[in-house]
Amino acid sequence: MPNELPDPVRFSADHRNASYDPDAVRRFLQILVNADRVFKQFRTGFLGKASPVHFFWGSFDLAVTHFSGRRAPRHPGGVPHLSDDVACEAYSHEVSSAGFWPGSGAIDYPAFYSYTYPEPAGFRSTRIRPDAAFFSEALGEFILPYDAVRTAAQPDQALLEFLQSTYEAAAEAAKWDRDALECTPGKPGMVRVI
Fold it and tell me: What InterPro entries does the record tag this protein with (predicted)?
């Protein structure tokens, strides 16, 4: 049964959603491939527990998460169309998470996002780079429109600035042990001397 979707229909019984636009799929795949590459680069500067870059098919987002190593207060649940047990397990430890999704609801355009759980005081008021980034009160997370990255003189650098500055905002506000968790960024898949 699908999750993270309103009014889910079992896959075998879903005959409503059958449209397919090959050009849109190719463009979306290219965005995911490029985001994956930059997310993996961003991840190389973190020594603590981190998720691999992964795809959530419910909300169709690509994400990467860093963990502080400390337990978090029990998540209150209430995530639309997601079991409270799943939400409580997913947020059992402090996280700083970032990703890309095609948009929906309050943000109806493609965007990169970043949030932290639990949200520490001062997080949402931190100045984030690049200038096109902003905090969405509706979503409770920082947003960087995809078009701001796509049209940047250096798209990879613009996205890395967003990822790094939102992570730093979370880590500083929550007082993560940054000396133990961080290192000089390396190359994805390459062993390095620390």
Answer: DUF5996
Residue 39 has, within 13 A of its CA and on its CB side, a CA count of 25
Please state the pTM of the whole predicted model. 0.91
Q: Name the β-bridge partners of 50.
A: 66
Two structure tokens written together for 21: 């636009």
Compute the distance between CA of residue 96 and CA of residue 165 in angstroms, rounded to an integer: 11
User: How high is the mean pLDDT in each 10-residue block of the chain (194 residues)?
Assistant: 76 81 95 98 95 90 97 90 87 97 93 98 98 97 99 98 99 98 89 70
133-151 pLDDT, tens digit per residue, is: 999 999 999 999 999 999 9
Query: 148: closest CA among 164, 160, 130?
Result: 130
Q: Is 123 helix (H, G, I), strand (E, B) or coil?
A: coil
d(CA 39, CA 31): 12
DSSP assignment letter at 69? E
Q: How many CA atoms lie within 13 A of 169 on its CB side?
A: 27
